[in-house]
Structure formats: structure tokens, C-alpha cells
Design a protein that fits this description.
DNA-binding, alpha+beta, 5 helices, 3-stranded antiparallel β-sheet, homodimer
Chain lengths: 123, 123
DNA sequence: CTCCTTATTCGACGTTCGTCGTATGACGAA
DNA sequence: TTCGTCATACGACGAACGTCGAATAAGGAG
């Protein structure tokens, strides 16, 4: 909802990077529908595809062409869906695929989806 | 279909059921991202789940609780994504899962997704 | 013919989505 | 300290989404 007035920097210091510990859902709470939705975007699919090949990457090193703030948005969607894990180290935020967790929850799903995507990248 | 009697419809003739032949994408044009998006909605997932079990059903016979016009919308999303096929017969519109087509395009995908959904229906 | 059933199209509504520019914060190097 | 880099939060924008009610159309039963 719209909260109205919120002067410039007066009111909120606001939590920034490193404050809130980057909430990740428990493995058992990963929702299939959220995962499918997260993977239904080409940018996010590319991110997951890249992470399946390489183990860990920093945010800025993905082969996608969107603004940094857009990328942050996509990472949040993937993280909140339980698809990726992010940890912080200095100014970098390292990202991994939660492959084992996904495998435990939905055996065989991720690789089947990625294989389907390789077969027909963007139609 | 015959076009003959356009009675008092002064304003909008407009295409209605049966006029436009219910466009379905070719098998080779089915886009994975569209399929994943189509399946990321609980109502549509339930429809697909139902169709995988039963072979063919009429629109009104699905175990979902939404308004008829909403259901029509969901069927269109599934149909345009290439997930279902619909044919008309009298006042009924029969719906089937395009299982063989999906299997040919993305082998093993649909059953893997449905198995994942059975495992954790709506979290 | 009339009436009921089936399922649609249309239009509207509030919400969510993907995108970006700008400002901000935290870290590390000079 | 200052400066540059990495990545974020915020706010805005238009587009798409899920939902529904009302009107419409066609088929079938009487």
C-alpha cells in the first residue's frame, strides 16, 4: 500500500546489504509453482543454466543483458523461490544453485527442465 | 463455418465460439518458457493434472473453483502455450492434454513436473 | 417456437511483473 | 582519508496477469 509521505533520507535508514541475512526458504517449503514461475523468465532461466554448469558466480558475471537493479530483482525471485542460494563476501554476493535441495524436493526436475531448455532455447 | 445470419447485431459482429478455428501452436513451436509459465498457476496445474489422468473432459467438469469466464481464460493460456488441445462438439468444448506432442518436444518433462506436484501439491 | 445449458467475449478491477534510473551503502585499494 | 567498484533499495512506468460480472452465441430438449 502507499504509505504516503516518506521524506528523502529523513525517515528510514533502511536495512542495506548485510543487515538482513538473506532469507532462503527451507527445502521442505520450496513450492513447485514458485519454482516454475521463477524459471519461466528467460533471464532467470539463463542464470540457472549458468549456475548448473559453473559452481558459483558473483552477481555481475552472468551472461545476461539487463540493468544491475533488474538483475537484483531476478536474483530475489530465484532466491525466494528456493532455486538459488546467495552468500556475501565483502562487496561480492556469491550465488549458487540449490541443486541438492531441489533434487531432494523434486527429484530429477531441474535437469529435465534444463535439458528441455537446451533442446529449444527460446523458440 | 457458415457466416450467413448476422442478425440484429448492429454494433459488434465479433467472432464467437466456432468461428476462429481455435489456434494451436505447432509442436515444434512450443516454447518451454511458455509451458512453465502456464503451469505456474494452481488452477492450470490442476487442469493439467486432471487431464493426465482422464483422457478428455468438457470445460465445466474440472475440479476447480473459479468463474466460467476465468476458466476460459486459463484454457486459452494453456492452449496457446501448446499444453492442451480443444475441439468443439455441439455446445461442448472437449479438452485433451497434448501429451504426445509435449513428449516429443520435451521428453519426460510433463510427467516429471506432475510427479513433483503430487509430491507437494500447493505448499 | 421457447427455454435451458454450455462456454464464450468483452470490459473492468486491482495486483503483480519486468524494466530502468537514481541514490545509497559497504568494502577495498590508493 | 578519498575514490572506485559491487550490488542493493527505492520509486516509477507500462504491460501482463487473475479475477469476475454481464452480455452473447449456438446447440439441444421440450
Amino acid at each position: 500500500m502507499y504509505d504516503g509521505h516518506r521524506k528523502k533520507g529523513v525517515t528510514l535508514p533502511r536495512s542495506r546489504r548485510g543487515r538482513e541475512p538473506l532469507a532462503h526458504p527451507d527445502t521442505t517449503d520450496i513450492d513447485l509453482l514458485d519454482v516454475l514461475h521463477a524459471l519461466s523468465d528467460p533471464t532467470r532461466m539463463t542464470i540457472v543454466q549458468t549456475l548448473r554448469a559453473d559452481l558459483e558466480r558473483a552477481c555481475g558475471t552472468f551472461p545476461v543483458d539487463v540493468a544491475p537493479s533488474t538483475l537484483t530483482h531476478h536474483f530475489r525471485v530465484l532466491r525466494e523461490a528456493g532455486v538459488i542460494h546467495q552468500r556475501e563476501e565483502g562487496t561480492r554476493r556469491w550465488t549458487t544453485l540449490r541443486f541438492e535441495d531441489l533434487e531432494r524436493r523434486f527429484p530429477g526436475l531441474i535437469d529435465r527442465i534444463l535439458a528441455s531448455y537446451d533442446r529449444a532455447p527460446t523458440a
